[in-house]
Each structure stands twice: as C-alpha cells, then as structure tokens.
Amino acid sequence: MAKYILEGAGNINWMAIFALLTFVIIFTVSALLAFRKNNPVIKRMENLPLDDDA
Amino acid sequence: MANLETFSYDNKIVRNFAYASVIFGVIGMLVGIIAALQLVFPVMNFGLAETTYGRIRPLHTNAVIFAFVGNGIFTGVYYSLQRLLKTRMFSDVLSNLHFWGWQLIILSAAITLPLGLTSSHEYAELIWPIDIAIAVVWVIFGINMFGTILKRREQHLYVAIWFYIATWITVTVLHIFNNIQIPVSMFKGIYAFAGVQDALIQWWYGHNAVAFFLTTPYLGLMYYFMPKAANRPVYSYKLSIIHFWALIFIYIWAGPHHLLYTSLPDWAQSLGTVFSIMLIAPSWGGMLNGLLTLRGVWDKVRTDPILKFFVVAVTAYGMATLEGPLLSIKSLNAITHYTDWTVGHVHIGALGWNGMLTFGMLYWLIPRIYGTKLYSVKLANTHFWIGTLGILFYAIPLYWAGWTQSLMWKQFTADGFLQYGNFLETVTQILPMYLIRAIGGTIYFTGVIVMIYNLIKTVQSGTLIANQEASAPVLVAYEAHNNEYWHKWIERKPIQMLIISAVLVLIGGLIEIVPMLMIDDNVPKIASVKPYTPLEWEGRDIYIREGCVGCHSQMVRPFRSETERYGEYSKSGEFIYDRPFLWGSKRTGPDLHRVGAKYPDSWHYNHMLDPTSMAPGSIMPPYPWLHKNDLNTSYTASKIKILQSLGTPYPEGFADKAVEDLKIQAKKVAASLAKDKITQENLENKEIVALIAYLQRLGTDIKVKDSSK
After folding, report:
1. For chain B, what is the mean pLDDT?
2. How many CB pairs under 8 A join A and B?
C-alpha cells in the first residue's frame, strides 16, 4: 500500500514545493518570534474583552 | 488620574441586527427544509416556476449566508467593537443606513431569486444592480467600522478586530472581481470572464466567501464572546497572532479545490490542494485557542448552555476544517465531488460553527442589552441538545448518501460495463437518506423556535438599554519603547493592518488568477469549437434562469466510470465561450456536458413537460411554462453585441441578423418536433424550443461529424 503512495512522490511540481517552503519558513519564523518572549503587555491584551463593564 | 470621558454604547443597532438575524434565519432555514423535502416529494415544487428547487436553492443559500449569518456578524461586530475600543460607533446615521440597506438587499434577493433573475455564480447569484447596492452598503459599514477604530480610546487592537479588518477588505476584493459583468438589461449581465477563467474566479470567490464571511468574522466573535462567557482570557494570545496571519494568507489559495479533476490546469489544482492541506494548521490553531480558553472551567460547561453552544460550535469548526482539507486531496475528492458528502460538509460548518455560535452569542447578548436575565436556562439547554441532534441527523445521512451514490456511479460489472448505467437508480437508492436529512434539518429548526420563544420571554421581562453609559480615559499619544513586542506595532496601527492584510490576501489571488488570464497555453484552443447560435444562447439563459446548474453538472471528469456513462471527458477549450461557466457543483441529476444529440428533440420536449414521462421515478420537477411562454428576443441582438465585444468571434454585423437567425433555427427545431407528432400553436416561438436547441448543442463541437449529414 505504501508503495503506491510513495510512487507519486517524485512528480511534484515546483509551485507546490515553493508553496510548501514559503509556508514552512514563514510559519516557523513567526512561531519562534511569537513564543520567544513572555510579555506583561500580552497579559493586558488578552484581558481586553474582560476589561469592560459590559 | 487620567481624564475620564463619558459616552454611551449603541445597543439599539445591536438589537436590530440580532432581530434581523433571527427572523431571516427562520426564513432561510424554512426554505432549506422545503428544498430538502422537494427532493423526496417532488410534488412540493408546486408546479410553479417561482417555487421550483432550482430557483429556491439559491434563495436558501443567500438567506442563510447573508441574511442569517450576515446579520449575526453585524450583531456581534457592533457589540464587541464598541466595547473593545471603548467608544461608541463612529456614526449612528451610518449604523442605521448599514442596517436598513442590508435588509433591503435581502428583500430584493427574496424577490429576484424566485423570479429566476440570477447570475448563476454560486453565493453571488444576485443580479448586478443588487451587487452595486451590496458594494455601497459594505462601504458604509467599512467607513463606520474604521471611523470607530480611528476614534478609539483603547490604543491596542484586540485580535477580534484584526479579523474584522481582514474580513472587510477581503470581502470587498472578492465581491468586486467575481461580479464583473456587462449589463444587458436591468436584470441581466454577461460575465467578463468565460469558461475555465470564470470557474477559477468563481471558486476563488466561493471558497473565500466561506473563509472571509463565514469564518474570519466568526473567529473574531469567538475571540470576544467566548472569553466573556467563560470569564477568562483566551488561551494563547501569541497563538492568535500566528494563526491570524497564516489563515488569511493561506485561505485565498484554496479555491481550486472546488475544481479538482475538472479541466482547470493541473498546476492550479495542485496549488489548491496543497494550500488547503496547509490550512489545517491555522484553522486548528483557532479551534484549540477557543477550546483551551475553557481550561479550568470545564465544569461550567455542564451547567451553562452558552458555553455548550460555543464548545459544539468550535468543535464543529475543527471538524469541518479537517474534513475540508481532506476532501481537497485528489484521491478523496474523486469520490466525493458532486455528491451529498459536500453538502454534509457544508452543513457541519453552517449548522455547527455558524449556527451554534450565533445562538450562544444571542443567549449571552440579549439579556444583557435588555438589562435582565435569560428567561429559561433549562430551555436554552434543551435547544442545545435539539440543535446538536439536528446536526447529526442532517450530516450523517448525507455522508452515507454521498458515499453510496458515488460508489454506485463507479461500479463496474465483471465484464467491464457500468453496473448502474441508469443514473436514476443511484438517486432512488438515496431517497431515504434525503428524508432523514430533511428531518434533521427540521429538528435543528425546532431548536431555533425554542430559542425564539425563550428570547421573546426574556425581552418582555426587561427593557432595552438603548444607550449604555460608559466611561474611559482619553487616549494619550502612545510612546513606543525599545523592548516592545514586535507585533504590538501593528496592533495599534489599524491602517497598516488593513494594508498588510490586503496585500497578503491579494498574493494568492494574483498568483493563481493572473497566469490563467494571461497565459494562453492554460486553455488549449480547439478549432472545432464555435460560439453558440443566438437561439442556443437564449436557451442557455433559460437554463440559467431555471437554476438547472443546481442539480446538473457540465464537466465530465477523466475517469473511466464517467467516460463510459457520459462520453468523452470535458476539455478546457470547449468552454471558451461559456459566459458564465456552468460546470456545476452537484449531481442530483446526471452530468449534461455530452447530452447533445443523445436524445431526439421530442424526448427533451416531453421530459421538460413531465420528467417522469421519460424517466419514471424521476424527482426532477416539471417545467410546463417553457412550453407556454413565448421566447423573449428583445435582448438577443444586444447580447450578441456584448459577446462580440468580449471576444466571441461572431461575424461582423451578426448582431443585426441575430433574431432572424434565431427564428430560422427555431423553425427547424419545431419541424423536427412535428416529425415526432408534437405540434402546438406557435411552437417555434416558445421557450422550450430555445432550451432544446441549447441542450442539443452541448458537447457536440468536438464530436467527429458524420460526413453524410
């Protein structure tokens, strides 16, 4: 079964690769940036909806 | 002590949008139930043009998407935006213009769609004057929303607001490009794009209507109302940053997954598949963020119906955003495309994500703006269980039906022939599932009625706080400091957020669409394909008017099971004059791309008069008015002229001879009908003759012509 799936692995067009790489790079970079710092400002932003009296 | 300003939140506009959402939700769902029952009991088409399935299906989709969910969006946006920004809406006048404008648009849709005034692009069926009205009202909404953002007292834009901004700009772009038409009359336009290009633009729009009308604004609402209901902040603010940008960038590219195994070029199909699968990540980011917001308060879900609704809504969102990408894998899509599986998938999102979130929001919101408590928590819990049950009874029969029908379509005997050569057999087989689906929808609808009762009693026990007093410090000019978190810069700059969102959203569209438009090779020309004759074009417009595309596809896929059943698979070059394209999304009836010259003219005459006369057991409604109405040829000449201006190679001056040419061909059709003993007064002037001419032309251009004819 696995051989049928792997058979199709060779003919991927360049656009799909480009798309995948773009996504992986941007996603990884933003994930790293976002999770690097723990900021008190984030705490404030999170609570914005709870901040009002409504 | 900062300088405190007092102001008031406008709750009246929230109340208005909430009421509109509920009222149109009822109407939209009722039309849906009728449509569902029409498939099981065709008598419910009532023999009237205005109530046939083909005409009311788009009424249902437009009502639930733009009237129910649309008003729901505005309810939540107007409530949350004011409070997150600590300011009243920019302009009460604009708020009211937005509200009444939107409802008038819905009313005009309710009138025009049953009358057969449609452009046929799915979820964009409304005719061009209404499209212009939508643009005007949408701009009013945009000015009101951005005006409010600019006069805010809270410097930072909470995540919900980024989603509202992205929604606004993307819907603007989508609406404009998918509705580019040249008007023929007040009620009809001809699309600028044709065939494959038209298909790509339609589904770039169609999928992103799902993304940016049904998803992103509701994610914004989730990010506001779920923390409010649970009384705790969202699980991970950082996750919301990442999944927001990833979502709006990736979603746009997914459109081609509606066109897999069609004659759309392979490279575009691949992009659609790849990006659809990548989309699982940001979508599930949103789902996880929503569900994990409830960490520590799961016991509250046991007693609070509002949280129950949100949990099912977000879970349904997660399910649908896994199912969608899986359906975008070509091998699975080969089975599910054109079947009820797709319809089931749609309704998990619609009933589960949009519906349940709306109900939760209304149960939370209405008591608060009326200064009272919810009339009955018990009834709200009952609604929850009824609604959840309704979703299951809706979707599961359709999964079963889709799988069953598709496998029947593909089944071969040991000798290599189609096991179920008669399409109707595959329809009859799934009628019981259609019935259960209709029951499921009715169950869901019953829950809505329970909610309405509960909300009416709630409203009666309180008074509307039309203008809710609030106060907040004056906004002081913000001073950036060195170590500030990188994303904070854009969080306080709404215009930059608008522009960058727009750029990201345009990238996908441009990369997929521009090559389709500019590179000729993408649609190889076929020399024998010629433009439609005037009579065939009028017949095509009747096909569009009656909504035939709702049940019949015109795209034979390159599978042996399809070429055996229908004929040669469809090539992109065959559709170069099709404005709009009519590839269809669903096969409730058989594909029609190769129906030309398959049956005699008399077969079509009888079939349209009463489908069961030619196909016993058929669920297709009769169309007797086509045999009674005279064909309207007053626009034929201008249609030909416009088509010429768009590049269709009619001979010079042909527009002036168009009606004459039409009458000659109509006489030929009437003569062929007379040969089969079908005579009728003035038959050659009737609409049925035009429709027959069109159907008999379909797919015949590439057939090898018999030289003896």
Report:
1. 94
2. 87
Distance in Å, alpha carbon of B509 to nearest chain A alpha carbon:
14
Half-sphere exposure of residue B184: CA atoms within 13 angstroms, side-chain side? 25
Give the distance from residue A46's alpha carbon to the nearest chain B alpha carbon, in angstroms: 5
Q: pLDDT tens for residues A4-53? A: 666 666 666 677 677 778 878 877 887 787 777 667 777 888 888 888 76
Rounded to 5 degrees, φ, ψ at B523 are -125, 85
Residues with Cβ within 8 Å of B619's Cβ and at least 6 positions away in sequence, in order, are: B38, B39, B40, B42, B427, B431, B588
Range of the domain at A33: 12-51
The verdict on A47 touching B (C-beta cutoff 8 Å) is yes
A35 within domain boundaries: yes
**Per-residue model confidence as pLDDT tens digits over B529-545:** 999 999 999 999 999 99
Calculate the CA B490 to chain-centre distance: 32
Q: B4-473+487-512, what's its fold?
A: Cytochrome C Oxidase; Chain A (1.20.210)
**Radius of gyration for the alpha carbons in chain B, expressed in angstroms and rounded:** 27
More confident residue, B215 or A23: B215
At residue B476, the pLDDT reads 73
Based on its alpha-carbon atoms, the radius of gyration of chain A, rounded to whole angstroms, reads 21
| Cross-chain residue pair B233–A13, CB shorter than 8 Å | no
Please tell me the distance from the alpha carbon of residue B70 to that of residue B63, in angstroms, as a whole number: 9
Summarised one tens digit per residue, pLDDT across range B352-406 is 999 999 999 999 999 999 999 999 999 999 999 999 999 999 999 999 999 999 9
From B142's Cα to the closest Cα of chain A, the distance in A is: 22
Encoded amino acid at B629, one letter: N
Closest CA to B161 of B258, B106, B85: B85
Q: How many domains does chain A contain in total?
A: 1
A30 inside 8 A of chain B by CB: yes
Scanning every residue of chain B, which has its alpha carbon at the shortest distance from the alpha carbon of A47? Answer: B233
* pLDDT tier at B709, thresholds 50, 70, 90: very low
- Region of B86 (left: φ > 0; alpha: ψ -120 to 50; beta: rest) is left
Whether B1 has a pLDDT exceeding 60, the answer reads no
Q: Each residue of B259-291: pLDDT tens digit?
A: 999 999 988 998 899 899 999 999 999 999 999
The reply to whether the predicted model has a pTM over 0.80 is yes
Q: Domains of chain B: which residue ranges?
A: 4-473+487-512, 534-697
In-domain check, residue A1:
no
Q: Average pLDDT in the B469-485 region?
A: 72
Query: DSSP label at B4?
Result: E
Which residue of A4, A32, A45, A47 is the best one to mutate when testing the B interface, meaning the one whose CB has the most B CBs within 10 A? A45
CA–CA separation, B161 vs B622, rounded Å? 49
Confidence of residue B321 (pLDDT cuts 50, 70, 90): very high
Q: Please indicate, yes or no, if residue A4 is contained in any of the structural domains.
A: no
Locate the chain B residue with the closest alpha carbon to A50.
B228
Answer whether residue B26 shows pLDDT above 80: yes
Q: Chain A: give the shortest CA distance to residue B466, in Å.
A: 13
Q: Per CATH, which fold does B534-697 belong to?
A: Cytochrome Bc1 Complex; Chain D, domain 2 (1.10.760)
Residues of B in contact with A26 (CB under 8 A): 246, 249
Output the pLDDT for position B486.
64
| Residues 7 through 26 of chain A touching chain B, CB cutoff 8 Å | 12-13, 15-16, 19-20, 23, 26
pLDDT exceeds cutoff 70 at B106: yes
In a domain, A6, yes or no: no
Shortest CB distance from B485 goes to which of A16, A20, A41?
A41
A26–B223 CB contact, under 8 Å: no
Question: Hey, is B630 helix, strand or coil?
Answer: strand
Please, what is the Cα angle at B121 between B119 and B124, to 5 degrees?
85
